[in-house]
Specification:
single chain, 154 residues, mainly alpha
């Protein structure tokens, strides 16, 4: 009986250590969960995107990596940009209802692209595909989000 308890305790300790190693490795190369989220789900259309990382198109999002990083950033209350990026990861994972909820939250937090995409989708789950994947509509949305000086310089 004692040997069984010791084995279970060792196994539990190894499992905990492995879980901590996975969490650390998932953010390797990034200083924070917010940066890991930026790196894994930063939208090329987002004028507020972290320019330190290459943008990630919707189809390029690695679902597990982005969900992990962006959920952690969300739990840490990193900000509306990470909430928007979590919405993108959720949408990509096949959870449009949860994505719409996060899009609403990001928009209410002041994220410009979220507010415009939410308006383009008419805050309707039936229109969420348009908000996340219609390049013509989102190009117009992104253009309208640009400062007037940037548009007139084109």
């Amino acid at each position: 009986m004692f040997a069984r308890c010791c084995c279970l305790a060792v196994l539990a300790g190894l499992t905990l250590a492995l879980n901590q190693s996975v969490a650390i490795a998932s953010h390797a190369g990034h200083g924070s969960s917010a940066e890991a989220c930026d790196a894994s789900a930063g939208d090329p259309r987002d004028l507020d995107r972290n320019p330190s990382f290459a943008p990630v198109t919707l189809g390029e999002i690695r679902i597990g990596e982005a969900l992990s990083a962006c959920r952690e950033a969300y739990r840490e209350r990193s900000g509306p940009r990470q909430t928007y990026q979590l919405a993108r990861a959720l949408y990509r994972s096949g959870a449009p209802g949860r994505a719409l909820s996060m899009l609403r939250e990001a928009a209410s937090g002041g994220h410009r692209l979220s507010a415009q995409l939410l308006a383009a989708a008419k805050d309707d789950i039936a229109e969420i595909d348009t908000a996340f994947s219609d390049p013509l509509r989102t190009a117009a949305v992104t253009q309208s989000a640009a400062p007037a000086s940037a548009i007139s310089a084109r």
